[in-house]
From TrEMBL:
Compositionally biased spans, kind Polar residues: 13-39
Keyword Transmembrane helix: yes
Higher taxonomy: Bacteria, Bacillati, Actinomycetota, Actinomycetes, Micrococcales
Record's compositionally biased regions (Gly residues): 1-10
Region (Disordered): 1-55
Coiled coil residues, start to end: none
Transmembrane segments: 58-78
Domain DUF8017: 115-303
Keyword set includes Iron-sulfur: no
Protein name (database record): DUF8017 domain-containing protein
Keywords: Membrane, Transmembrane, Transmembrane helix
C-alpha cells in the first residue's frame, strides 16, 4: 500500500475516481426523502461547496500503507489544504472537546457541533469534502484530518477508488508492518445518488480493487449481500447497508490468508445523500468485533 499526494487520483482541485463522478438523479421519489419529510425532523444536509484552487495544494508525499501491501491494489491517503500542524490541531480539537449525550439534544438529528454522542468517543467529519459524520471510540482509534483521502489503486487498470476522513483501528497489530491497521472507516462523496444505487456499487468497487492481482486476475470474493435496512443517527434515520467479503489480490505478510469485509451504509435526506464505508480485516489478532462496528455505524448522521 502507498500513501500518495499529487496528481494521482486528482484532477485540478477535485478528487477523481469512481466515487467522485457525476451524481445520479433518482428516477423516482426516494424512500429516504419521504421518510425525512414525514418525520418532521427537518434534517437538511449541507451543500458541499467545491474547495477553491488556493486550497488545492497537495501537502504530503508517498507514505506508509493503510491496510495491506498489494502491488495490484495499493492503498493511499491524500491530504488537501492546510499544513501538518493544522491537521494535528484539528485532530486535537476533535478529541479534546467535551462530548455531549443524546439527552442534551432537543432534536436528535442535529448535533451540537462536531462532538461525539457519548463520553469516551471522538467524532469525525469530512468538512466540505463529503456529507456525514460518525463517531469512534477514543481508545484504539486514530482520526486522520478531514481532508485526507484513503483508498485503493489498481496499477494494472489505472483505476482508483477513495474515501475521505478515515478513522483507523488497531494500528501496529502486525509485527511485520507497524503502520498496518486492522480496520478503517471513512466517508464517501456520493452527491445525490440514491442509496439503492450507490450502496452496492461502492461496496463492489472497493472489493474488486482489493481483489486485483498483478497478473490481471482477481482473488475470490463473497457474494454481495442484499440490502439490509438499519437505523442510524440514534435510531432516527433509516439507511441501507450492503456487505461483501473478498480475499486480497496480492497480500503482504499481515494480510496473507486473510479476508476483508467491506460494508457501505447510505442514507438520503434533505436532497443530499451520505455514505459511510467500513473495512475490517478478518482473522487477525486485533480483529474489530462486528458488534463494535455496529455501534459505530449507529452514530452515522448528517454533518452538523
Amino acid at each position: 500500500m502507498s500513501d500518495q499526494q499529487g496528481g494521482f487520483g486528482l484532477s485540478g482541485d477535485q478528487p477523481t475516481g469512481p466515487n467522485t463522478g457525476p451524481t445520479m438523479a433518482n428516477p423516482q421519489d426516494s424512500y429516504y426523502n419521504r421518510y425525512s419529510q414525514a418525520s418532521g425532523e427537518g434534517v437538511s444536509a449541507p451543500q458541499q461547496p467545491k474547495p477553491g484552487r488556493g486550497r488545492g495544494k497537495i501537502v504530503a508525499g508517498l507514505a506508509a500503507a493503510l491496510a495491506v501491501v498489494i502491488a495490484a491494489a495499493a492503498i493511499f491517503a491524500v491530504s488537501r489544504g492546510g499544513s501538518d500542524d493544522d491537521a494535528a490541531a484539528r485532530r486535537s480539537a476533535s478529541v479534546d472537546t467535551a462530548p455531549v449525550t443524546a439527552t442534551t439534544w432537543t432534536n436528535p438529528t442535529q448535533a451540537a457541533g462536531a462532538r461525539a454522542l457519548q463520553p469516551g468517543w471522538q467524532s469525525q467529519t469530512a468538512s466540505t469534502y463529503a456529507n456525514g459524520q460518525f463517531d469512534v471510540p477514543a481508545e484504539g482509534w486514530k482520526l486522520a484530518s478531514s481532508d485526507t483521502y484513503s483508498g485503493y489503486a489498481n496499477p494494472e487498470t489505472n483505476t482508483t477508488i477513495t474515501a475521505v476522513a478515515p478513522a483507523r483501528y488497531g494500528e501496529g497489530f502486525c509485527a511485520a508492518k507497524k503502520d498496518q491497521e486492522a480496520a478503517w472507516v471513512a466517508l464517501m462523496n456520493i452527491g445525490k445518488r440514491d442509496p439503492t444505487d450507490a450502496g452496492p456499487d461502492i461496496a463492489q468497487r472497493f472489493a474488486d480493487t482489493l481483489a486485483a492481482k498483478k497478473d490481471g486476475t482477481k482473488a475470490p470474493q463473497g457474494k454481495l449481500s442484499p440490502a439490509k435496512q438499519v437505523k442510524v443517527n440514534q435510531g432516527t434515520l433509516p439507511a441501507l447497508e450492503y456487505t461483501i467479503t473478498t480475499d486480497i489480490g496480492d497480500p503482504n505478510a499481515c494480510g496473507k490468508g486473510k479476508k476483508y469485509e467491506i460494508r457501505t451504509v447510505t442514507f438520503s435526506t434533505g436532497g443530499e445523500s451520505a455514505q459511510l464505508v467500513t473495512f475490517r480485516l478478518l482473522g487477525v489478532s486485533k480483529e474489530l468485533p462486528a458488534a463494535d462496528l455496529d455501534k459505530i455505524i449507529a452514530t452515522f448522521r448528517p454533518a452538523s
